[in-house]
Design a protein that fits this description.
It is built from ten helices and no strands. It has helices spanning about 1-30, 40-45, 50-85, 85-100, 105-115, 120-145, 145-155, 160-195, 205-210, 215-245. α6 runs antiparallel to α8 (about 160-195), α8 packs parallel to α9 (about 205-210) and α9 packs antiparallel against α10 (about 215-245).
């Protein structure tokens, strides 16, 4: 516990310094609809706690969870397929890269037209943003398996299945957790973008609604909540990584 506090102390001090600079800057501007102070945002969070925590946060987290789950399945399938077959690698890799050149804010309204204001239009935005780092990072992890180790197992009569589970998966596990830690914040962003452009609930929708009312603190309150949820999720993934990837040294 003491070691964890010591490791997090620099980040906490830097965060505190940023918040103080923000507070002083907001006091200098003295226009809450342009730059609300952290104190005003926290007060707004408390005032709007019921709709934010009981309606909009669960809606956004639901979209995030479904989108991230689909991205994990799709990304892992693409990574394994590209690693297993040179044909699929040549066929899929350019398409995977090209998918990231699509402007999300341009295609998200089309998802709303196709699927309406339900969950799936937001899920598709989340998947579009998050499957790429999972697929490419896990693919790189599978490819980093040492050739001499694979050749050694082959001389012992190992099958492709043995090589995959005994060599490639252990090599790819650190890459997998790094990809998930990248994908979690991006999935939250994707859900918020989808809700901003078309939704009936969610933190992105709520932030846009507050903007129409020129409520600066109300715009920032769901954003702060989104950031806190993303950081908590990344922290949980990091704890799981330490339990699973025990051979990786702590920094």
């Amino acid at each position: 516990m003491k070691k964890a506090c010591k490791n997090n102390l620099p980040a906490l001090l830097f965060l505190f310094a940023l918040v103080m600079v923000w507070q002083l800057g907001a006091m200098g501007v003295n226009a809450a609809y342009i730059l609300p102070s952290p104190v005003q945002i926290l007060r707004k969070l408390w005032e709007l706690r019921e709709p934010l925590f009981t309606v909009h946060l669960p809606a956004t987290m639901g979209v995030t969870a479904v989108g991230l789950g689909i991205s994990l399945g799709l990304g892992l399938a693409l990574a394994v397929g590209m690693d297993a077959s040179p044909f699929w690698r040549r066929a899929l890799y350019p398409v995977v890269v090209a998918s990231q050149t699509i402007p999300t804010t341009a295609i998200a309204p089309l998802f709303v037209l196709w699927f309406g204001y339900g969950i799936w239009s937001k899920v598709l935005v989340t998947v579009l943003i998050t499957f790429f780092p999972i697929a490419i990072t896990v693919y790189d992890g599978l490819r980093c398996a040492r050739v001499e180790m694979i050749e050694l197992l082959l001389t012992y009569g190992a099958s492709r299945r043995d090589i995959f589970f005994k060599i490639k998966i252990p090599c790819a596990l650190p890459y997998f957790f790094s990809a998930v830690k990248m994908a979690v914040p991006m999935s939250v962003i994707g859900a918020a973008i989808g809700e901003w452009l078309g939704a009936q609930s969610g933190l992105g929708y709520f932030s846009r609604r507050m903007m129409t009312q020129l409520d600066g603190a109300g715009v920032f309150a769901p954003i702060v909540l989104l950031s806190a949820a993303a950081m908590l999720a990344v922290g949980l993934v990091g704890l799981l990584e330490k339990r699973v990837v025990k051979w990786r040294g702590e920094s």
